[in-house]
Amino acid sequence: VLRFTGGTTGAPKAVMYSIDNLLSGRDLHYATADPVDARSERMLHFGMISHASGIVYFPIVFKGGCTVTMNDRSLLTLCQTVERERITCSLMVPSMLYHMLEAPEVREHDLSSLRTMYYGASSMNPTRLKQLSERFGNIFVQLYGSSEHAGAVSCLSKAEHLPDASGSEAHLSSAGRVVPGVEVVIMGTDGKPVADGEDGEIWMRSRTICMGYLHNPQKTAEEFCDGFWKSGDVGRIDSGGYLYVLDRLKDTIVHKDCNVYPNQVEAALMAHETVMMAAVVGIPDPSCGEWVHAEVVLRGDESIDGEELRQFVGQRLAAYNVPRTISFARELPLSPVGKVLRRVVRETCRQNFKSNQSLTT
Fold first, then answer.
1. Cα–Cα distance measured from residue 109 to residue 84, given in angstroms and rounded to the nearest whole number
2. H/E element holding 22?
3. pTM of the model as a whole
């Protein structure tokens, strides 16, 4: 079976799977804390089965549940389908869930049959996650996986979407705990595992790891080693066993020798009540390496000054994370599966700043 990667950071690659890869992904789902129920489950694939939603396709099929697919990506169709088919579970990417907080059609339809909402494919903003839980209840389960590992690598269960015994909610920004059957190693730039709590590249290994890339032996050799896939994600594992996916290595901004992780800056921006979505990228600058730039989409008719947002972020993050520049956009470019195409944002913004600089000089 062939599946193309999403292409959010580069050209899509054709990933090759064996049937054992796919059935292993099924088994890993059954090993999570919140697997699909038996025949009573009615799963709505809002996203494409060829991508993230495919993680729960085989688990549903092999338990005799019902699968419902959609031919468009409108929230109106989603709400109508949930109400008509009494859908019990679905899987959505965070950007689509954010829209569910604002969309009037969500308030106009009966979605009470939903008892599990899986999410993944990109990081979830902790502020929005709390708002979603307040709106829909404790129905959310995070699954971290990839095209190269077509099954859950880690899972943040429904129980783990609540404060821990000490009242802390810090783990809500994690991707949960590693699923039994998967090996995860946080690897340093020297090719050796780092200590717990330190940042490095996430390497993963299980039966679910794909067979490589079609007609691309060079890329296969670069990204796979001793059964592990080098994810390209920067992460860490804390003392509680929670895996934190900080950002893509390719998206990390180096500002004055400091690593800026766009996900963390975006989370700080989206903690402001006026902000719906944000994309943070680096703009080349010979004086500092890269400066931090943010493209921001506001909620509804809200308005705010860029300097006020910068001060807001400065109260939550170290100074080197604060965007030097902020632009407001009506929307952000999304992939067919609903992930923000940060690569497109970066290329567009860099070209715009370069053009404006040329005009100035």
1. 10
2. helix 19-30
3. 0.87
